[in-house]
Fold:
Amino acid sequence: MRMRRGGLAVIMLTLTLMATSANALSIRLTDGGVNTVTIGDNGVGDVNPAAGAVTYIGSIGAFTTNVSTGLSYPILGSLDSPWLELNSVDVTSGSSGTSKLYIYLTDTGFTGAASTFQAAIGGTTGGTVKYSTYFDAANTAFAMSTVLTEELYSGLAFSDVNTASALGLDVPYSLTQALEITHTGHASTSFDAELAPVPEPGTFLLLGAGLLGLAVYGKRRVRA
Structure:
């Protein structure tokens, strides 16, 4: 039976929507008020054409300069082994009051049943930076239903690594990174933050066994 072109077009559109909905990388910047931008991967406002990368350049309220990039699958990690990375440079100028900027990076459709996650961050700030990470068993973008890690940093330079158990994790699920930046007057903040599963002990054992096997094989070749 010959399929009509209209029916084929509907099937192709449905498959496309299913593929795009399974993985929804997005970045959001807001000052907590009316100044908010939300940009999806390859959506309006994304200046990075690569799939798995979303970049925003522009102002948000008192934060006159912001260059923020979020990375995920397929550039980093995979659906089975999630890896989010968010880096940003944010500057306030000409303001004597206290200003806040909230930056969120989220992605959905992850299927790797990780038991523990690791959140790492490093950067500099002229104010304070609060770094929080979340997962959502309902697989909702930007959902912050379950806290993984949360820390507050101040001073010029900072770096840290925190781990947390993902109790109640079900598949598929979403992951979200949340940064709260606070400046008083003219100040700048820059950071690089990552969120990824901690490899299971079995992974390290397999890696060690593989390396040991290569070493034994190399010795046998040398003796031969």
In short: The chain has one domain: 24-223. The two ends are 65 Å apart (CA to CA). The chain is about 20% helix and 50% strand.
